[in-house]
Amino acid sequence: MKRVTDEPMADVRDMYMVHTMLRREFRLLPQLIRDVEPGDVKRAEVVAAHAELVCRLLHLHHEGEDMILWPLLLERGGDKTAAIVPAMEEQHSAIHQAYDKVTSLLPTWRTTARGAEALASVMERLLSTLEEHLDLEEKEILPLAAEYITAAEWKRLGEHGLANSPKKTLPLAFGMTMYEAEPEVVRAVLAEAPLPARLIIPVIGPRLYAAHARRVHGTRTPPRIGA
């Protein structure tokens, strides 16, 4: 199929940044849940609110891919994408099933701090499915996106997440995503943002995540994927 060549193509480095955040936070969640003492609803609320935020970020991330990325790759990639995109869709479906189970158990645990093991076990199943998916996506899909998706089209993925996220959580979500990101990738992500956002987000995002991480993880510097 013909490659789109009349405008800049996607810079996919931001996807690795998002994936690193998802891996880190989902890897830490099962033990966070197990560490809550039965009946400690105050602590359960803190961990559950964090789990809800991370789950929402995952849902919006995959929803954008389903709506925007997969159709474009199938349209343009020919044999290169004919097999891998359906595999991605199947993995999304499996992740969504585990996600639905997590979100069905989370409210009761949040208010009672009972049933932690069941919730943590389902979270581990979600994590296992998610990590398999992220690994395959980075190996197979991101090179294809860099070849077939324009920068403007790629930008729509981020815009989908921004448009469907509560505005009050956006600076924290940026800080969470920036935690292990290369500075030049952060600058590229913010390059087309309004000037106030370009100036403020790199400052307040990390501060918000540090404070959030201290409440959730007990440290302002939770374990990094590369550590």
If you had to describe this structure to a student in words, what would you say it looks like?
The chain is mainly α. The longest helix is centred in the first third of the chain and has 36 residues, at 41-76. Helix 1 (13-35) packs antiparallel against helix 2 (41-76) and helix 4 runs antiparallel to helix 5. It has a domain at 13-165: Up-down Bundle (Four Helix Bundle (Hemerythrin (Met), subunit A)), CATH 1.20.120. It is built from 9 helices and no strands. It is 78% helix and 0% strand. The chain is globular, with a radius of gyration of 18 Å.
Task: List strands and helices in order, with pairings.
Layout: H1 13-35, H2 41-76, H3 79-82, H4 84-112, H5 116-148, H6 151-163, H7 170-178, H8 183-190, H9 195-217
Brief description of this entry?
With 227 residues, the protein is mainly α. It has helices at residues 13-35, 41-76, 79-82, 84-112, 116-148, 151-163, 170-178, 183-190, 195-217.
Attribute tags:
227 residues; mainly alpha; Four Helix Bundle (Hemerythrin (Met), subunit A); 0% strand
Rg calc: 18 Å
Query: Structural class of the secondary structure composition?
Result: mainly alpha
Oligomer designation: single chain
Figure out the total of helices.
9
